[in-house]
Amino acid sequence: MKLYSRHLLGLEGVTEEEITLILDTTETFREIIERPIKKVPTLRGITVLNLFYEPSTRTRISFELAEKRLSADSISFTPATSSVKKGETLKDTVRNIEAMKIDMVVVRHSSSGVPYFLTQCVNSNIINAGDGTHEHPTQALLDMFTIRRKYKKLKGLRVVMVGDIKHSRVVRSNIWGLKTMGASVALCGPSTLLPFEVERFGVDVYSDLDKAIDGADVVNIMRIQLERQQAGMFPSQREYTNLFGITKERLSLLNKNYTIMHPGPMNRGVEITNEVADSDSSVILEQVTNGQAVRMAVLYLLSGKKEEEE
Q1: What's the rounded Cα separation, in Å, for the pair 160 and 179?
Q2: Distance between CA atoms of 304 and 310, rounded to whole angstroms?
């Protein structure tokens, strides 16, 4: 079994078999990062470009560590100190760097569709690390891996995503991935932060948080960006917390063995309280650890090394 595409642009259209392959491969790499020596020669000779046009902490460091622990050569690109400041286009930037003989590009960009655009410009494998409001596939994969590791399954679980659904690429990737794997998905947030025609995703949609999380196994909380309030999408942070914040009092509505997730960064006291974020049911830090293993698996599978070994 192998991935059908040489790129990872999103999870829409990715099969159950492919997702299972990535998650199963992640288990192997998860064991590696627990070892005293966390480095293997798997991608020796492969050069990876980290092309981040947006600020990032977790995703960028996670990819950089994944590359180093696979023994790949990695280069990190920062637009602020590059020829982009002189007017160079994205296409020219990437083609010039590829001329230095790189093999893979990890890209994050504020515009949806940039990873696909790069597949038309260069021969390198492209991995989407988040594009606009489109998708963030490795975040959804690490979320699914974290859930599967706890429950030993994804099929039949009820996962509720709460918060800014409209602008969240994490939500979109989770919807496609979780539905493909047989989980039940629900979305909840203010009507102003729900996408137009949200029903087209084929999931349950709520504007009442208590109804949404009643009987849920997993609550994945999306960050509320403060600029949304400034744009008038909700009246105040206090009102948002009262209506949509995940508090200790609300946890009684969930199934007994419930799980709290957040892709970060968190606005403590807004979308999640401190006692929930730091509770025993929170797997937020485990998500970060698992993210490194997921990215190692994706880099490995897309590199073609698996076919060479076979």
Answers
A1: 12
A2: 10
